[in-house]
Records
---
Amino acid sequence: MAIKNYKPMTPGRRGMDGYDFSDLTRKAPERALVEHVKKSGGRNSNGRITMRHRGGGAKAKYRLIDFRRNKREIPARVAAIEYDPNRSARIALLNYADGEKRYILAPVGLSVGNTVMASATAEIAPGNAMPLTSIPLGTAIHNIEIAPGSGGKVVRSAGAAAQLMAREGSYAQVKLPSGEVRMFHVGCWATIGQVGNIEHENVEIGKAGRVRHMGIRPHVRGTAMNPVDHPHGGGEGRTKGGRNPVSPWGWCTKGMKTRDNRRTQRFIVKDRRA
């Protein structure tokens, strides 16, 4: 896939980049593998906004992705590489030997006609799923389970890849894209390779309208508000602050650690900030 640059015909087009979609082989999704999802607009079941700056956006149906890869020992042929509006990565349509069809994340190097399989004895090739106990050390992996059988939860965005560093007893050490080294149970499954669409990070949005298409509403700075609306508001003219950055409700927003999960802290071997 390559990034295309638009001509600066308008101020919004100036500096804008986009996909050329040359890596896609099919436009319409598999009808049996899509479903309608109602948008919440950031509101909970009581109708109250619990996630600000959400709403609008282009309509998109959800593609059912097989993160579990629980169809074991059955080979599947890659039928198409498709676009998924719900994620940054591309998805691959698999046709299994028994006739079933499923979507998976498309890794780098996977193309139409390739054969993939989820098996402990599978070949070390992009798209094959294996347990961590069967993957050679140093292999790039993605779509890793946090608990055996729970389905892939981490390393799923475009261009992401983790590396299997070591194995000792019932746990394996995996270096995540953030630099964090974390322990995973050797019974957890992962997919070989790096997630595709690695040029995603180079795309320049270019104008505010494209952000609205993603369902993200405008964010107003606190210093631009009145004192009644935000702790940073008010003042004669523009102010630089005077207090630590806080949210509209006075919560510290920079520098304060927000992770407080003592149950899983023991699995972190090296912190990503180290």
Note: Residues 77 and 115 are 5 Å apart (CA to CA).
---
Amino acid sequence: MPNLYEDFANGDMICMDCGIVVGEHIIDTRSEWRTFSNDNSGGDDPSRVGGPSNPLLDGDQQLDTIISSRDNFTGMSRELSRAQGKVGMKASDKALLNAFRTITTLCERIGLTRVITERAKHLFKIAEEEKLSKGKNTDAFIAACIYYACRQENVTRTYKEISSLTLVPKKEIGRVFKILEPVFAKYGDTSVRPSSGSTEDFIVRYCSHLNLGNDVQKIAVSILKRDAELGITAGKSPTSTSSAIVYMAAHFSATSAPKSSRDISSVSGVSESTIRSTYRELYLRRHELLRDLSIPQSLLDALPNQ
């Protein structure tokens, strides 16, 4: 076995026995920085240069060097960053990146998963490629894409919730949503076809936010199924129905105190008056709703009438 030494500083491969240079211009394949960690046993291996590629951006854009404008010593880097911004990237590319940042921030604010975040970005890019948002309110398209992504991933969010998050009126979100629907369908990609959330989804989420146990959630779902058979709240919105059902079911909890209509309203966004009016309809037929749940008579008698 020859005793060879790779001199990366000079690009030579040298025989340590006789000193002959047996190779020239060799390429250093090691990491392009030094690691100052004392722990060499494991951890992350910083052997890759640059960040991961983003499939939502064109390949050429991801190879750019960005000059930071954060310089505590002089204003030179700020000026260089400004000059690079003028010539280094097209206005459309800047708008797309800014929209991606906004989508990420908004999704993180309400705890949406990364899958939904990436889905919303993908939908927004389709809208950009179709030039649907050109000259229009970008925030409305961002809001509609987030709403669309939530529905596609079966994470139920209402127009009102997305409106509160993005400060875009509900009617505007709905208008843009109707514009986007046929465009996404045109691409023939099932990943962008939305599926509506159910009232049961709202019940599960409200119970979680109110720290109600599984016993309450099961009772609420049973009431919902019975209500669907009887048609008591037919025509009511899913949020109103689910809020009223959770309000009723919470009175049967064995581990937590009943919740007020104000508590329910704070997590559902439904007004207290709407919750109480819907609940009254359920209360009038409570014996039919609860006959298969083996609820003690004492708890039935303790139910509030409004």
Note: The first strand starts at residue 4 and ends at 7.
---
Amino acid sequence: MIRIGLVGVGFMGWIHFLAYKHLKDARLAAVCSRDKTKLAGDWRAIRGNFGPPGEMVDLTRIKKYERLDDLLADPEIDLVDVCNPTHMHPDTAIAALKAGKHVLVEKAIALKPEEADAMVAAAKAAGKLLMVAHVLPFFPEFRHAANAIKESRHGKLLAGHFKRVISRPDWSADIGDAAKTGGPAIDLHIHDTHFIGLVCGVPKGVFSTGVVENGVVQHLTTSYDYGPGGPSITCSSGALAMSGRPFVHGFELYLEKTTLVYESGSCPLTRIRPGLIETAPMPAEPGGDVAAFVAEIQAAVDGAASGKMPELLSGQLARDALVMCYKECESVISRKVVAMG
């Protein structure tokens, strides 16, 4: 039984809490928050851009800590689930690793690549797992696409376009604060760079155009250079939509024998082949609205139990995704192709 210590009770902490109810061989053992109201079980102020709003929760059988050091000193905690704001991830994760805990940290891994490097190095030095909670590969549509590309079941990937659009994040002061999240080009777009890195690898370079407000990239469109033999990949991602525009993500992927199309809310995953257009069946999975998070956290639990890094939660993959975001922002500002290095 893996015993989890949750650090940070905001929107993502709430989503993870909901996912814990469906885990196998794991349980929430402790919660750490500086907010005494939340430690008392009143999570009704929590709001996000998907899933249910927060509510009253029963924490009577769960340890409650105001100080991180006290949670890390608890010998009954095996896995620390870091859900505090992104700018706090490096200090929290490194402290947990040094305390001998496995770590699952919400994306983005950090605000700066050098901080991500320090986290990866700390995990190696401690002999513990640093897992980063990038949930996109656990959505069934994206999992289907990743497996199709990896297994070449429809031939080689020739080209593709990814899309991720939200309204301006006015549901949370932290989410709207670029100093804490990096802004949409980091906090939002890193979902895409992580998935692109997973299925295509790190590109040779990037060229991006975008919309910049007060020095922060709010929207961008990027072309990824994989060389003459690589796929032609593009992505548009941003937070400029009016509040009436629902969250949308998806892709259109051109493989040698099949086109895969998916857009949340309007187009289920569809396979298009010569003379055949069919909707790909998606399996029913536990957790409802948070099913992908159940699968993601279960992978972290299984990793902590076995001591083996789950491929989809790799700290190095998350670090590379962060670097890609920064290279794209550099390209938006310079209006030049930027090499990945």
Note: Residues 315-334 form the longest helix (20 residues).
---
Amino acid sequence: MDRYNSVNNTKNDFRIAFWKLYKRNSVEKISVSELCRVAGYNRTTFYVYYDNIHDLLLRCIEEMLRPIKEHADELQQVGAPPEDRGKLAQLYLETLKINSDYVRLLIEHHQLYILEDQYKAILRPVLLKMFSDTEYPKEFLHYMLEYQMAADVNVIAQWFEKQDISEEDIIKLMVDCAMNGAGNMLTANRAAPTDAGQHDEAVIQQIIKEMASQKND
């Protein structure tokens, strides 16, 4: 066995051991000694590849997202159009489904945000390249893309839990919302116009005035 395969097999053994222990305990309660016992290696070998248990968790999630990272790199290199962002969302959905047992453990331990943050880190440079020709200032573009990515990961997380519509429908809905704006789509499909918007604006302005008054007091 060559060194490359040997290293990969060792890392895979550590990942398998981690997920076994993660089923029973939080990251904070998993010791390196216990992990090494389950994986069949000594502590010295563990520290060759990882700094600590939390670092191993990050590497496990990184491995889950590796196919998305590879595809994202391809899209970034060819300068894919904005419509192609749906491909990355579809890959993310597939990743959640394929690794559903691990994803549910992350949810159970309130650490799904780590997966979402890594996914956004992969997606961010691709989106910046896709919208590099925009006339918006760089600072505006940053916030707009953060807004969209936050919406994407939250929608996908909810869909993963419910799966009440098809994968094709949720991808199409996400792309439509991203390209046309959810607010615009909802407004365009309202049964009849009302003056509720003006009323709400008046109420909000009144609340703001009252808050400002209390602050001054």
Note: The radius of gyration is 23 Å.
